[in-house]
Amino acid sequence: MPTRRLAYPILLALFLLTGLAGYFAAQLRFNYNFNDFYPAGDPDLAYYEQYAQRFGNDNDYVLLGLEAPAGKTVFDPQFLVRVDSLTQFVQRRPHVVSVTSPTTATNPVVEGFGVFNIPYFHPGDPDPARRAQDSATVYRTPGLVGNLISPDARAATILLQTSPNLAKPPGDSLLAAVRRELTRQGFAEADYHLAGKMVAQSVFVDRLQVELAVFMSLSVVLVTALLWFTFRTWWGVVLPLVVVLGAIVWGLGVMGAFGISIDLMTALLPVMLFVVGMSDTIHIITRYVTELGYGTEKRAALWVTLKESGFGSGLSALTTSIGFFTLMTSTIRPIYNFGLFTGISVLLTFVLSFTLLPAMLLLLRKPQLRVPRQEGRSWDGVLGRLFRQVLARRQLVVAVSAVVLIASVASASRIRINSALLDDLSQNDPVKQDFRFFERQFAGVRPFEMALTPAAGGSVLTLPVLRQTEQIETYLQRTYGLRFVASPVTLVKSVRKALNGGDVAEYRLPDSDAELQRLLRRAKPFRKKPEFQALVLPNGSEGRLTGRMPDVGSLRAGQLNADLHQFLRQHIDSTVVQTRLTGSANLIDKNNENLSLNMITGMSIDILMVTLIVLALFRSIRMTLIVLIPNLVPILIVAGVMGVAGVSMKVSTSIIFTIAFGIAVDDTIHFISKLKLVLLKEDSLFRAVRKTYLMAGKAVIVTSLILVGGFSTLIFSSFDGTFYVGLLIGLTLLFGVVAELTLLPILILWFYRHQPAAVREAVPVS
Prior knowledge:
The protein is of the alpha+beta class. It contains 26 helices and ten strands. Helix 1 crosses helix 12 and helix 23 runs antiparallel to helix 24. Keywords: Cell membrane, Membrane, Transmembrane, Transmembrane helix. It holds the Pfam family MMPL. It comes from Hymenobacter aerilatus.
């Protein structure tokens, strides 16, 4: 039996461990690395990493879109002066590798042994004839309209190629410097737009820090109110908060010790743990208060509480942690880390609940219950009436459940796996609106990458390979949806045009091998240019076809890629040139191919573990099915809600079902573990179920309200993924407590074959 003398060394040890955890937690840093969401260990990722070493990453850029003043076009001299000034400014910035701008774009012309670069735009030249001439040349020249200027000539764009995988601090400094210069140049915020990985990275991390503080504050306020409403004592509020906040420090400390950063997924850990971790403390305090109400001495009441609650809490902590651990089946590193460290934190919360909480209760004087026991049977009265109503209408409960379940399954069939590059930002988010600007006015922000490999020993700069590549380009622009494309074909055509006086009509492939060889010999001055080296290796053994398009989403991209592969099989000679899709967008899309498999794997592990636990407790297959049904029904109902609401399955929403099942089964484990104890003393199954219903009902309702309320704070997130995690898990738990208080007792009384001797002695599985 626990004593006060034992409480002091326990508290001292826990205090020292919490201090150590706090030290490591203080080392945590916020991070949002786009590359972390690539499928770890995938062969396509390994290939892309090698491809990027040869040609560079396809997302190390920033797009700066500038809108011309009202009533003017991008050819306005004063506007071009500001564009040119901005271009020169960003060219001098650290971590900027190259800049492509309307004022740096030139039409190269080769005359004799010299190369003359004729500008397409002439900043500051007020001559209307010059502007008309520039406009005519630009609109005739391929690759300028939709890339450097918008089709309506109302906007221009500057592309900044940055250092590979630029981290957040230098990236933020660069963006801040660009914004300051834009302000100095007189551009209002509505007149310029920024897009690119670095922009999203900066915004995501800043918002993570704010939202983490907001959600924790909201959760603390909400849970404090619910705890006060439930226990009406200061210690009933303070002690659970101390335990759970201590568990959060421990969990973050473990993350810090392993060098893990806080990202879009792990940012949910403190809120998740704060809400989920309350379960054990509430079950302990509820049982403790109940025993005290029966007149039991304090230490004896605590000992009974620990004996009766420890088994069920241990099992529920195990099932909840397994629900998170199953996320480790994901190939996406942030989800893997979130599942691993949240699962560990749940187990640490269990340890604190049965060490720190009992120690603090021992040191407190025996609490004076606010409501005397003889007058405090309100919970028993409410639960007793609810139990009678459920049994009296059991056929109606089952019928309604069956109808809702059938409708949910039918609706769930409409769920589709689909995601976009900025899926976690709401439609009205300013950052997303900036990205949409580039989709409306320019080529878009979704990169496209295809590797080109000629026949063994060949070169991509041979006429057969170039003609095959040109066919692919044509298909990609006319059918696939690329609005901008560049490849070795672009280089050869540009060289041919330059060697023919810059005449746009000469922008085409050579007619013969002999002409191509003459072009390549005279193209040596161009081979040193970065744009040439970014598309062809020096020996010609590999080429790159790159482009941009609107972000059509992974579902549409999958259909486009399937059609592209069919086109390549039917029209491209693989003995001449071989192709392979690669790039960051392709890798992100590939994550979606694994979502269903990861979700099914996680749910299967969850269900298997719960099955083994129930079999170990009751040695009954019937009871196993009885426990699973009320916990799977809410999952299917929420899947139906997703189908009706048109919520797609994506990286953020794919984790909902495994987490929700692991948490929802928590209360069921508490219920059946108490039922097992009651069955040891009761020969009547009905009386045992009713007594368990009254004993566990209050804790089940209170913990469910706290869980639902805690998760509901996430709906205030500016990230759609976090919003849906909060909303859908909250709904699952809400439906779960309804199913547990209605379906579970009905199913137990209908199907479980209670044999008192079988409970006391080991018997074969029935």
